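I have been asked to look over a protein record a colleague put together. What it holds is a sequence and that sequence's fold in token form. Please read both lines and tell me whether the tokens look consistent with the sequence. I do not need a full report, just your reasoning and any doubts. This is what I was given:
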Amino acid sequence: MRLIFAYIISSINYVIMTLWMYVFHILQVLAYNLFGYSAHKKTVELLNFILIANMFTNFCRPSFHGFKKIPKNVPLIIVANHQSMYDIPPIVWGFRKHHPKFISKKELGNGIPSISYNLKKGGSALIDRGNGSQAIKEILKLGRNMEEKNWSVCIFPEGSRSLNGELKKFQLAGLKTLLKASPSALVVPCTLDGNYKLHKYGKFPLNFGQRMKYTAHAPISRENISDEELLEKVRTTIQESLSN
């Protein structure tokens, strides 16, 4: 009975989500071409707020913690764990005052309404995972924009999603490149807790009635510490705040 109910409400969730993504794809194009970056940014923020609110369709209860305490008008390197395709909206919305960007595989730059357009026009880096020099070049470009425009970038050092919520090994390469490209950026750990529970039955249907907790932790100092030690501190902070 629970599975049948999950199919019903997940179908409603998917229909609503898909409709909004197509609507906001058009709104993004209009905002970007008619009014520029700021209007486009606000459009993306509103879309992600709606996507988070749509989780109530599945009787889920997202909550945000610590985001208001993060310093403004300074670039951030947001280091987050990765549990689900639904990790992006809380980061966009929670860090909306910090202009969050992403490092994404280039395949996501085409074919996905709203998402692909935002990745291409919003300032994120689209990288070719099979071309190391291209990837480094794009990340360095993003780092320069962070310094010049006080942007922030989110990276998922696990690389792929954790299917059971357990924290996987962190990879250093992406963070190391960003640290070099943006020497003034603060490193902010971010814990996404509970999103993996949405996928009890796989991508469809979504599980329902889950609590999702999103936490922005205090920045970690970069002074007198190696990149490896910094990454381990970030990982420990996230690990200690996970509920599983």
